[in-house]
Every structure is written in structure tokens, then in C-alpha cells.
Specification:
Length: about 90
């Protein structure tokens, strides 16, 4: 039985610990921070036109515009910001 030799040049251990997924409270805050300003801007930009629509159609239009902005644009940025803040405080 042969015992494997240890690697003479082991990979350096990273000093940065990657944070896990957000807690449900952190995620709720992140979603609120993304959704509220998005809906506010859309309402301000399209308010006159949206006012003429029925509530169901207005909600459909708002959701159709806001969801892709939040999911593909804002949430990845908020996840990066959270990761950067957590790794900065962990190394400090």
C-alpha cells in the first residue's frame, strides 16, 4: 500500500470566504430595494398613459416592464454589492 506524497506546491488558501446565499430577511430587503424604485420610476414615466388603463391591465403592464428590470438588471447588482460588503467586513 502506497501513501501518496503530499503536494510540494499546494495551492494557496484563499483569504476571502465567499458568503453563502442571503437570508430570507436580506433577500426581502434586496427585493424591496429593487422593486420600489423601479415601480416608482415606471409610474412617473408612464403615469399619464397608465392612468387610462384598467387596474388589471395597468398591473400587467407594470409587472411586464418591472420584473425583467429587477431580475436581470438590479438583483445581480445587489447580490454583488452584498457579497462585496460581506467579504470586506470579513477581511477587516
Amino acid at each position: 500500500m502506497t501513501v501518496p506524497a503530499s503536494d510540494p506546491n499546494p495551492a494557496p488558501i484563499s483569504q476571502h470566504r465567499v458568503p453563502g446565499p442571503p437570508t430570507k430577511h436580506q433577500l426581502a430587503l434586496m427585493i424591496w430595494l429593487a422593486v420600489f424604485p423601479t415601480l416608482t420610476v415606471i409610474n412617473l414615466a408612464l403615469g399619464d398613459w397608465l392612468r387610462t388603463l384598467t387596474p388589471v391591465v395597468r398591473t400587467f403592464v407594470l409587472a411586464t416592464i418591472a420584473v425583467p428590470i429587477v431580475i436581470y438588471g438590479l438583483m445581480p447588482q445587489l447580490h454583488r454589492l452584498r457579497r462585496r460588503l460581506l467579504t470586506r467586513t470579513a477581511t477587516s
